[in-house]
Specification:
The complex is a heterodimer. By secondary structure, chain A is mostly beta strands. Chain A has no helices and twelve strands. Chain A is about 0% helix and about 55% strand. The chains are: A mainly beta, B mainly beta.
C-alpha cells in the first residue's frame, strides 16, 4: 500500500522568512510523481510544484522548491520570502505511473504573520 | 490553460431531492475525477473516468451516480443523500503523458 505522511498539522512563518514543510511517503513502485498542492480558504486545490521520481534534480518554481530524498522517501517543500498569500493548507501527494490514484497526506496548515 | 470548471458552486438539497453537479474541461485531458472533501481532511477519491469509461469506483454508495457524456464533461448525479454527505465535491482532470491532476474550484454541497 502507498502512504503519504505529513507530521506537521500546523506551521507558522513571518512574512519574508523561509519555512519548510515536511512530507514522507512509502511506495513499492519505482516510477512515480510527487506533488505539493495548496488549498487556500477559497478551497480550490492549486498545484504548487511536482517532482518526477527518476529526476535527481530538485524541482523549483519561483519561491517554492523541494528537497527530494528518494532513498529516505522524503519530499519537503521550502517556501522562501513567504507572503501573506501563501497562507493555506498544503497537501503532499503521490501518484504512481501506472495508476490514476492520487494519494494525499493529511495536510499542513500554514499561517503567515505580517 | 489549466482550467476545470464546476457548477454550481453552492448547492443545498433536501434528502429526497435529485440534483446534479457538473464539471467541464477543455484541455483535452483523457481522465476525469470526482473527489469528496470534508472539512480539515484531504480529498477522498470517489470515481475516475478514463477515455469516457468508468475505471475506478471507490465503493461509493449508489446514491452517487457518475456520468461522462463526452471527453470534456463529467456529471455527478445525487439522489436520496444523507446529511453526512454534505461536503466539498472536487472535480479534476489529467492528461496521461504529464500525469499532473488539475482541480476545479469545487461545489459546496449541503444536505438538509
Amino acid at each position: 500500500a502507498q502512504t503519504v505522511t505529513q507530521s506537521q498539522p500546523e506551521m507558522s512563518v513571518q512574512e519574508a522568512e523561509t519555512v519548510t514543510l515536511s512530507c514522507t511517503y512509502d511506495t513499492s513502485e519505482s516510477d512515480y510523481y510527487l506533488f505539493w498542492y495548496k488549498q487556500p480558504p477559497s478551497r480550490q486545490m492549486i498545484l504548487v510544484i511536482r517532482q518526477e521520481a527518476y529526476k535527481q534534480q530538485n524541482a523549483t518554481e519561483n519561491r517554492f522548491s523541494v528537497n527530494f530524498q528518494k532513498a529516505a522517501k522524503s519530499f519537503s517543500l521550502k517556501i522562501s520570502d513567504s507572503q501573506l498569500g501563501d497562507a493555506a493548507m498544503y497537501f503532499c501527494a503521490l501518484r504512481s505511473y501506472n495508476t490514476d490514484k492520487l494519494i494525499f497526506g493529511t495536510g499542513t496548515r500554514l499561517q503567515v504573520f505580517p | 490553460d489549466t482550467e476545470v470548471t464546476q457548477t454550481p458552486k453552492h448547492l443545498v438539497m433536501g434528502m429526497t431531492n435529485k440534483k446534479s453537479l457538473k464539471c467541464e474541461q477543455h484541455m483535452g485531458h483523457r481522465a476525469m475525477y470526482w473527489y469528496k472533501q470534508k472539512a480539515k481532511k484531504p480529498p477522498e477519491l470517489m470515481f475516475v473516468y478514463s477515455y469516457e469509461k468508468l475505471s475506478i469506483n471507490e465503493s461509493v454508495p449508489s446514491r452517487f451516480s457518475p456520468e461522462c457524456p463526452n471527453s470534456s464533461l463529467l456529471n455527478l448525479h445525487l439522489h436520496a443523500l444523507q446529511p453526512e454527505d454534505s461536503a466539498l465535491y472536487l472535480c479534476a482532470s489529467s492528461q496521461q503523458e504529464r500525469n499532473t491532476i488539475y482541480f476545479g474550484e469545487g461545489s459546496w454541497l449541503t444536505v438538509v
